Amino acid sequence: MELQRSKPIHVCMLALQHPFTDARIFKREAISLVKLGYKVTLVVPRNRQGYMYDIDGTPFTDRFLEPEFVHESVHVVSYSPRMPFQAHMELAIRDGRSLYFEDPLFKAGLAQEADIYHAHEYHSLYSGIGIKRALKEKGKSVKLIYDSHEITEGDKVPLMIDMLREADRVITVSDAMSSWYSNTVPSMPLEVIYNSPPLAAAYTPPPKKKDTFIACYEGYMHKDKGSSAKLFGITENCASTFDFRFKILGGTAGKTLELPPSVQNRIELCGWIDYRQIPEYMADVDIGWIDYDIQASDTPLNYSIALPNKFFSYLNNGVPVVVNNCPEMARIIREYKCGIVIEHASPTAEQYAECFRKLQDDRKKLRKLSKNARAMMEELFSWEHMEKRLSRLYAELVASMGGV
Question: Does domain 10-194+382-400 have CATH number 3.40.50.300?
Fold first, then answer.
């Protein structure tokens, strides 16, 4: 639903902890909104050295140096971030005015005087509330969207509930997350927009016979999400009985992953890949691997209820997913028969290896899982479908504003 009006609605996206190149914020939502006829501004942070930075933290030292610039028809406004203190946030929210808002994101966002504000984190929602109040005090009524990529603020739920009451819409990335918000603030209008990419142009089902089996891990690796120790163990175990390879798209933050000698010739480090190139890198991949530690006492609720970017990235390319028993990912896999759920909260490397070994031996099953994965993306989950949800949500907000 493209806008047909002389003056475009101005959308301002607010981010405190995400880089401006974030796949969801910039490459999907912002680009889609521009295509739909909106004027889009991103207010996003620079790093401590004053540079814009990429999704892996790498600074752009040779471009994007101006405080404001236009990139792919999106207006980008940068600022030096500062995290507001929790006690100050509580004071500002409960005061009911904009008087106590003073953080840099609030100031940079307020200067845009947009029509709709779209916040992407707990703290940028806070800044968005201050902006909404300040503009109302000046006689301008604006709308505020909270786009919840994850839930990591469990200890701050009382303040979050207060903040959510001032938002006009909440977007979540999974149905389970939407249920959490619905139970927390029952009257809140909700929309689920999955973290799915545009449909990959080419898809070829895996061959009926293939000697080499290639697993893939995409994204950041750390002890409770994509453990390198577990990945090395899987690789060693599998490689002892069949021709096994692991391909890593991403890796650790700020340093090169060190490979033990026993697996150096079995693991391909591809580095951080532009999401538009992912289909090329996954063309020969047999299975995608996701392993979240959902047993630790400090495990974010997000691990149980989210559907991460990597999940849809695999499926988009017809790559079935093998995952531990993370409830929301497990639900999707079981419903659409697009992967394998290891029925343990924290499977061992040996258990994952046994699963991969069985799939290599049963390539007919692997081929079926691949076709199911691709079909669900084509029919329901790809960004083309999500863009329609985004368009509808924005059209409803604009209508509620009297068209502006």
Answer: no
